[in-house]
Automatic annotation (TrEMBL):
It comes from Paraburkholderia bryophila. It comes from the Bacteria. Residues 59-292 form the AB hydrolase-1 domain. InterPro entries: AB_hydrolase, AB_hydrolase_1, AB_hydrolase_fold. Pfam families: Abhydrolase_1. This is Pimeloyl-ACP methyl ester carboxylesterase.
Amino acid sequence: MKISSWLLGGLVSAFAMVSAALPGAAEAAEKYVNTPNQYVTVDGVRLAYRSLGASENAPPLVLLQHFTGTMDDWDSALIDGLAKRRRVIILANPGIGASAGPAPDSVAGMAHLAEGFIDALNLKSVDILGFSIGGSVAQQIVADRPDLPRKMILVGAGPQGGEGIKDLQSVIADGIKRAGEMKVHPKVALFFTATDAGIAAGNAYVKRSNNHTVDVEQQASQESIGAQAKALITWGMSPSNFAQLEAIKQSVLIVNGSHDLIIPTVNSYVLFQHIPNARLILYPDSGHGSLFQYHDLFVAEANAFLDGVH
């Protein structure tokens, strides 16, 4: 799949690192902004990750990032909130940020390396939070290795062949244009609604991300953006994976905003319909970045789900 050069240039600009003033006071060692990179090698690929928090009573929670997202692009308040109750492991997708490449151009290829990453850490069971394309990767992991995830959280995700997923290029191009007109960071236009509340939440998220004090990452290269775009668009053009979804035995929490532009919200309901033991949360006046807009509520509901019996 060929990705036009103007779009690649726009995507690079859209996800450019945001400069943020560092806090004046020293942060505690367990704050995400101070968490250094660690590395493992899987199939000859050096993968970067960050780990913070601890729990003796639950598996670690592995976070799989969105399309072109680095580890720095996570909302630091969300990560800190999750890490208060459990070990959180943030994986840098292959070919993105501090992880070596090339970036796989298929969801299956991304899942294969994520599975190898979990094995390399000698983790026999994990909880998984997959955001956006990370939610596609999580679906593939549970299909490949049904014994590996204990529970899963799918945020801003959709099934194979899901409505509107194949339109990624035009959606992002439109978002970049609107961001310029609105004079906001492209993620504000793409991940949040255009209401006053949505714009304010988007601007607040921008300040809480890309504020790492150590091991700051580079943004995705045009080659990696093209590979991940091919992977997600192909996922959207593929036949449905309903049979795989219906075979999932794990408890799954599905989360989205009321107006997701990247992975249209209807896809969350379709996942809910086809995963037997699923529950669905939709946040009001929010988009693809609903977990960042409602980060405190999301952390509370994620903890309740992960700590629950079912």
